[in-house]
Amino acid sequence: MKSNFFMEPFKIKTVEPIYLTNREYRKKVLKESYLNLFFIKAQDVTIDLLTDSGTSAMSAKQWGALLEGDESYAGAKDFFEFEKTVKDLVGMEYVIPTHQGRSAEKILLESLKSTGEYIVSNMLFDTTRANAENIGFQVLDLPCKELYETSKSYDFKGNIDVSKLEKALKEKSVAGVILTITNNSGGGQPVSLQNIKETKKICKKYSVPFILDACRFAENSWFIKLKEISYKDKTPKEIARETFQEADMCFVSAKKDGLTNTGGFICVRDSKINEECKNRLILSEGFPTYGGLAGRDLSAISIGLKEVLEESYLNHRISSVAYIHKKLSEGGVPLVHPSGGHAIYIDAQALLPHIPVSAYPGQSFVSALYEYAGIRTCEIGSVMLGKTLENGEKVYAIQELVRLAIPRRVYTQSHYDYICESILSFVKTEAPKLKGVKIVKEQPFLRHFTAHFKWV
Ligand code: F0G
Q1: Which residue among 184, 290, 339, 450 is least crowded, i.e. fewest CB within 10 A of its CB?
Q2: What gap in Å lies between CA 4 and CA 141, rounded to an integer?
């Protein structure tokens, strides 16, 4: 069998319609949405690549389990099954459910508040950064230097720069080191187990907790199996376990590799931090045996965490992202190389050299592509990662990327072909004459969700 063969390892049991619209209609929708794709109704989107979060199709087994969910306030059976599954995977003593990833990161980071001034990372995701800064931490991203060689392929561009990490821990008061696996803001690139182990060693030397933001742990494990030679004969589960074994604590959004539409969790080894987190959990999420979720959701997560580690699933998942990456790359679209885990990242700056960073080329691209083909994508550039300081000064991101996040088990190969053909034709006919955008309204935190834009 050909090695690039990636037939969907599932059959479709339930379908939902895709509403087809025309360009004139989408032009009106875009204008009414202030060129912000988060404001567009999902029914006005043909192919939705806004996020891979909470957009998975659940399996028949997961849907079946929903019916048997135990909705008791305390001690529901689904919690114990969930706790057992997570412990078996993560190997940490304490498991705390939350309603999604950002509440997990907020609760965990709050418990570290008094222990240092900095959070150091390979690169934090936007919500994690906003939560850390809101709590009062300074954030220091120390990605490996290969990450910014956008068009070059390296196996593990998600790695942290360990010599910079050691320097930071030596010189600064650091409350925690977070490795985001895979590195979502940096092209969905994986982190090697070697880098994870080196990070652990340095954290141990300076007595700083080592934390994993592990919402794409299964995709990261698959890349380790494919690329880190000593792990080629291990199962994804064995690799995931070895990954978690290195960390002192983790937070996970189950909306990604949990293969569910909601949920998250925190795991820690330390009983004091467990207690602190649980006290905060009761204030904002709920009792520790449901953490803001329904019993049925806990059950769906337990099953999702097992299904996501199946080799046929992971092979299809990573191969389908690579399929789109290859087609776009062969068509001359500048991309982050190599293909990452959950998404394809277009280098909007390289694609639209006539649009200055101050006119947000990534936002211009996502808006115009929606109008052209009904495809909703997400800017990961200066709109998401930049900001306007109190004195009016603008801060820009290092890269202007556009992310095509692929929902899990949702689209088929003909959808992928529609995506590729539309983007290749858009890049040829529309991109050279695209205008930039300006921000006309923004909020101080996470502005990309609510900002209003205008064409310039
Ligand atoms: N950490 C990472 C690396 C993420 O990608 C996300 C969410 C979170 C934490 C927060 O989890 O959404 O469950 O609260 N990422 C989504 C995305 C939103 O589109 O990449 P959440």
Answers
A1: 450
A2: 35
| The pLDDT of residue 363 is above 70 | yes
Q: What are phi and psi of 280, to 5 degrees?
A: -65, -40
Q: 53 CB under 6 A from ligand 1?
A: yes
Work out the mean pLDDT of the chain and round it to a whole number: 96
- CA-to-CA distance for 411 and 316, rounded, in angstroms? 12
Q: Which residue's entry shows tokens 């390892």?
A: 9
**Helix (H) / strand (E) containing 452:** strand 452-455
pLDDT at 1: 47
Q: Which amino acid is at 426?
A: F
Ligand 1 atom closest to Cα of residue 264: 13
**How far is the C-alpha of 282 from the C-alpha of 390, rounded, in Å?**
35
- Helix boundaries (H) for 206-270: 217-227, 236-246
Average pLDDT value for residue range 310-332: 97
Specify the residue with its C-alpha closest to ligand 1, atom 18. 53
Residue 429 CB burial class (10 angstroms; 0-12, 13-18, ≥19): exposed
Kindly report the protein residue whose alpha carbon is nearest to atom 3 of ligand 1.
125
Q: Which of 95, 13, 120 is nearest to 305 (CA)?
A: 95
223 CA distance to ligand 1 middle (Å): 20
pLDDT in tens, 51-98: 999 999 999 999 999 999 999 999 999 999 999 999 999 999 999 999
- Ligand 1 midpoint to CA 49 (Å): 14
Backbone angles phi, psi at 33, to 5 degrees: -100, 15
3-state helix, strand, coil in the chain (%, to 5): 45, 15, 40
**Can you tell me the distance from the alpha carbon of 54 to that of 330, in angstroms, rounded to the nearest whole number?**
31
Spell out the residues 6+ positions from residue 312 whose beta carbon is closer than 8 angstroms to its own: 9
Buried b (16+ CB within 10 A) or exposed e, 200-214: bebbeeeebbbbbbb
Nearest protein Cα to ligand 1, atom 13:
101
Residue 280 above 70 pLDDT?
yes
- Cis bond leading into 338, ω under 30°? yes
**How many angstroms separate the alpha carbon of residue 130 from the centre of ligand 1?**
12
